[in-house]
Automatic annotation (TrEMBL):
It comes from Araneus ventricosus (Orbweaver spider). This is Uncharacterized protein. It comes from the Eukaryota.
Length: 104
């Protein structure tokens, strides 16, 4: 059965997982072909999120909802948001982003 909705929380049991590894795994499993909704709660410091998130989103041809919660993001939020505006998947209709403990 294909996965159409995915909620992933990077918490204690997944601590240390790199976000690029997660997206590579999802692509290898061909999850992107059916994914309609993605909720991603990422609690580890992340740099240059757009370089890993945007290619994954563009591979998700049916994705219409992205709910992104990031904690302790060190850089690249402006690049991520600009890239989402310029290169968003055609099907993407709704984007919710929460950033907590932002470093300047």
């Amino acid at each position: 059965m294909p996965i159409s909705r995915l909620e992933y929380r990077n918490v204690d049991f997944n601590a240390g997982t790199e976000i690029a590894v997660l997206f590579d795994h999802l692509l290898a499993c061909k999850t992107n072909g059916h994914l309609v909704s993605l909720k991603l709660d990422w609690y580890e410091p992340t740099q240059h999120l757009s370089s890993t998130l945007n290619p994954f989103l563009l591979a998700c041809k049916k994705l219409n909802c992205l709910d992104l919660f990031m904690f302790d993001t060190t850089s690249g939020v402006d690049v991520l948001l600009e890239s989402l505006l310029e290169n968003r998947p055609e099907s993407l209709e709704k984007v919710m982003t929460v950033i907590t403990y932002f470093h300047n």
